[in-house]
Amino acid sequence: MWIAVDLDNTFADYTGVLRAWVQEHMMVDGCSLADPVAYSFMDSGWPFNSPAAMMEAHRRAVRDGLYLAEQPYPHAVDTIRRLAVQGHDLVFAAARDDDPYGVQTSAWLDEWLPGGRPPVVFVQDKTLLDVDLLVDDKPGMIRAAVAHGMGVAHPAHPYCRDEPGSVFHDWAELPGIVARMAGEIGTGGVSV
User: Fold this and answer.
1) 124-156-133 Cα angle (round to 5)
2) Alpha-helix runs per DSSP H in 102-138
3) Residues 6+ apart with CB under 8 A from 148
């Protein structure tokens, strides 16, 4: 089975690192920095008054090493290794157009998955990938992948937990989702 895995807030905790950066560089009284209930961070008590302001903070945080500071979610690294050992073809699919030549991304993945890791593809529209399963957290991408007939699994973040596809609360659940989907593919149907 071909599986594409998103990085930020899917494989690794982007929100936690951005929260720490915001606290250090732009904390404003009255900001709660709660886990986002919208993918855009616009309604979660963060100090962004527009999507452009959020993106500017993101760009500044990336320049300060945000991608290098992320931590994989619990069980994510072991799950990727397990799926590879089981014979699944894996690729990390990142929409990081702000990491020239993938320098931070590659260094980070080499640190967390030493001795061999899935390749990275930088792509904004992940529906262009010919994969059986997309693991992603972006609501619009989840819906687009489902519309393209791709299997989808996504974390149970408040902003995407009600999207179509298989929801997981812990990366340790993903091999079961993959096994179920692989069985459905083998019988000629994929349900999401």
Assistant:
1) 50
2) 103-112
3) 127
CATH architecture label of 2-12+71-186: 3-Layer(aba) Sandwich (3.40)
Strands (E), 11-95: 89-94
Half-sphere exposure of 113 (CA within 13 A, CB side): 24
How many C-beta atoms lie closer than 10 Å to residue 34's C-beta?
Answer: 14
Question: The pTM is what?
Answer: 0.92
Q: How confident is the model at residue 186 (pLDDT cuts 50, 70, 90)?
A: low
Residue-wise pLDDT for 128-183, tens only, equals 999 999 999 999 999 999 999 999 999 999 999 999 999 999 999 999 999 999 88
Kindly calculate the radius of gyration of the chain based on its CA atoms and give it in whole angstroms: 17
Residue 68 · residue 99 · CB < 8 Å = no
Both tokens of residue 166? 């298989």
Q: Hey, where are the domains in the chain?
A: 2-12+71-186, 14-69
Q: What is the mean pLDDT of the segment spanning 116-126? A: 94
Comparing CA positions, the residue from 42, 45, 41 lying closest to residue 33 is: 45
DSSP 168: E
